[in-house]
Amino acid sequence: MKLDDIRREYTQAGLDREQLDDHPMVQFERWLEQALGADLNADPTAMSLATVDAQGQPSARIVLLKNVDQRGFVFYTNLESHKANDMAGNAKVCLHFAWTPLERQVVVYGRAEKLSLAESTKYFLSRPRNSQLAAWTSQQSRTIGSRKLLEQAFEQIKHKFGEGEIPMPAFWGGYRVVPTQIEFWQGRGARLHDRFMYRADGESWQLDRLQP
Description:
Shape: globular
Strand content: 25-35%
Helix content: 25-40%
Low-confidence stretches: none
Radius of gyration: 20 Å
CATH architecture: Roll
Number of strands: 9
Distance between the termini: 28 Å
CATH superfamily: Electron Transport, Fmn-binding Protein, Chain A
Order of helices and strands: HEEEEHEEHHHEEE
Structural class: alpha+beta
CATH class: Mainly Beta
């Protein structure tokens, strides 16, 4: 296998300033709606979340976008996880959406802020029951000796709550990434891609074309 021989041309579409909304969140929701309707054989709400720890070591993982509005991008996690510990020390994060069948990417730079207890609880109670049980079961990012131990812990939690309502764990909740910059990328031929960067400027946004 020669990896340096693997390439393709991006020919689906271009992106001009006139096609972009003045507000990046409106533009993002437009692209997200198109991705949701495109039958991509992948999860269009999947996004890479990059954080940096106290030693300056970056790390990235896939999380799922659970809400988006003018305030930012929402996801949920264990509040004692690797990513949560990183964000406690450095709230600056980066999100990356890769809609490769559409030859599109979106990159979000911003700050992660914890959601209110009410917001997190409302979402937790809407989750499937097994997802609620899993939140109680997993000490996310901690080591464990075997898969069997994890499954045993799940069964113990399942037995503990029986058929009753499952409350939200104190160590679980949500974050909103409040954007300061958002880049929209559309692939083009000859690697002359279209890139536009929105930068927060007070109550408005500055929009610039970037070289590929």
